[in-house]
Amino acid sequence: MLRQPIVCVLGHVDHGKTSLLDAIRETTVQKREHGGITQHIGASEVPLGVIEAITKDIRKKLNIQITLPGLLFIDTPGHEAFTNLRRRGGSVADFAILVIDMTTGFQPQTIEALNILKEYKTPFVIAANKVDLIKGWIKNDTLSISDSIEKQNEWTLQELDNALYKLVGRISEYGFNAERFDRVADFTKEIVIVPVSAKTGEGIAELLMYVSGLTQKFLGSRLELDSRKPGKGSILEVKEDKGLGSTIDVILYEGRIRKGDEVIFATAEGVKKTRIKALLKPKPLDEIRDPKKKFDYFDEVHAASGVKIYAPELERALAGSPLFVVGSPEVERKLEELVEKEIRSVLGEREKEGVILKADTIGSLEAIMKIFKEKVHIADIGEIGKKDVITASTMKEGNMQYGVVLGFNVPINPEAEIEAKKLGVKILSSNVIYLLEQEYEKWVFEEREREKGLALENLSFPAKIFTLSGCCFRASKPAIFGIEILEGTLKAGAELMDGEGNKLGEVKEMQKNKENVKMAEAGDQLAISVPGLCYGRQVQEKQTLYTYIFRSHSVALREKFKDALGEKGLALLDEIDNIRRKKEKL
Known about the structure:
With 586 residues, the chain is an alpha+beta fold. It contains 15 helices and 31 strands.
């Protein structure tokens, strides 16, 4: 008895992974995703009857009989941050479909997906998507790309070959040989490329045919089902279902799971056990993540399946973590160690300073942590609470950019919002990861600009200027001459000094393009007026000057405005401080 192969769909964001599955399932899951981008792993089953119906004509030509019970597809996020989340899918997958947009070719996540497939030695085919966008392509009412190719003109077929061989060339750079499906000489040595269109459905027949045929031919022993083994799965999502309460969506990748079984799973508080009260499965072709129809109830489910589990205390389960059916006490202890290790690797407080991060699943948490790298102080599952805001306020004292709580797909407690306003902590929340990243970067930029504005109002700012040749407009009372700002920021009212630390006077006025300005930046050329200075005696042409920074101002700039200054600004402040200190010692 063979089980369904688990087929992981990978590829770059917007290359059409979910749309391709929608074409097979005839659903619209992709349109219902936030931002049109998959945020979590999803699972859906395509039964044998559907595969046989779609591939009937091709199987007849090739004399192939499908013995598999069907295919279980895992749809994975394509955003680059989802490496770890995709690794969870890649590690349990028997086979994979790598989706590549023929119009844009290899992208960062295409390469990343190839590396994951290589690491786990997962066999795969390539779905070269958007064949309908090939110049001159004539759309045909067929699911077979072979039939459609026969109806294209020679010029269009040449364009198709050019696009395919660009892919063949790129994939060879990563140690793979690939060829169009109908030109493959040895399926053990060449990767099959199937041109497809998720929009028109062309190529779906060949894609299902080669996925089914290759898995049953080369993975036969791996797909043998041992229905006696305790089930092993991965929790996709924790949900509140009407009429049931808290449930979990699970990919069961090994063994069996039965109503009444005791299972072990992860929570933020540690490892927990519960007993299953109900097992539910989506209808064939339906998506467990976003079903269109009601689920069916089962007493027993075998791998490989997407299954919904109802049991007490599941609201505390951590999505993205493993779930195991409990066996002997010895096995139970080993399972507990595995689950504990999983929790510790992601959740909790870190010694280093950073942002406060809250998400809905472990997979999401891992993905966002990859973006922020060493900038995370606390990573946790669940709603944003008052305690998170207070912790962020503490982080803000050390570094402005850490005074924020980031939430992905989680609610914000009203008390947290009140506390955030009181403490001046920013809460950023989104259900699309790349938007959360963009919002954070925008906020950091705005905060730095705001800090810089405050500093400019109250403190002297470091600047390094150069007197321009032939640009003395008045020698004294006041001296007016042209300068270029080499580094930093110069503002009206700043006091100047030379390279020896001698004070020269205060910049009274500044003109740029014959208009008065209060502030100028590096690269600007302007005229300045300095009362009490005699040009030609204290200052010469082509001379480097600096703003004079009082010691108290220098300390304040370093403590409160180091982000506004940046690395270059701090280096210039060091240079100015050294000049001032040398002068003070004389």
